[in-house]
Amino acid sequence: MRKISFLFTGALLSMIILTGCGTSDKEDTANDSKPQETENNPSSEETKNGSSPDSSNESDSSADSNETDSSDTTAEKEEDATKEKVEDPEKDKVRILEQNIDYSVNGESKQNTAFLTTSDNQHFTMFVLPEYELSAEEPMKDVLLLSGKEDVFMRIEILPADINWDETEENVKAQLGSVSESVETLNAGEFSLTNGSIFEAKNGNDVVTSVLIKDKSNPVRLTLFTTKDEDHRDAFIKMGSTIIKQ
Description:
By secondary structure, the protein is α+β, with helices and mostly antiparallel strands. 39% of the residues lie in helices and 31% in strands.
């Protein structure tokens, strides 16, 4: 009996051991067969966040590119604006409303305040002394009149920027030739004119003077009609030298 009990006990122990081993093997098998979750699984993150890390990087890159393009465009516009200002410095020039002018009339030196005046006929501004008046004569021609003296005035013509000065001088001399056979070339420096030429013809008491102001931005032709008794040439030329196109 003890022998059988011993055998039974041994068999029971064997079954318990086998059962424990089976359970352990089943758990191991179950663990082996269960798919393992990978840490930091990219596909899992994409599902949770709704987008991949790569797409976020692409968005940042696109934004940086747009900001760079915008900066380049702004820089180009500023550069173009600067070029325009350098190429045409007179374009938006603001002028003061009055200016003192030294001049002479009949050999007498004078100084007076000239006031800024605008021509709506040829679109220019100039400083005019109190004794004179600017008026439109006809299209593309203005006159500056001496108050109370109809025979003393200056005709003003704004010339094109591409004017041929040699041809213009020959034309001026030909016109003055109808006043007198003798056409003089005056010293422009005597009238404080540093960028022009002056031609003159006399007939009795009448004096006709043609002035060419050879300014690149403001080319002008002035024709002065004065007399020996009313010599306002210096005053006319000084005022004419202040002409600037708008």
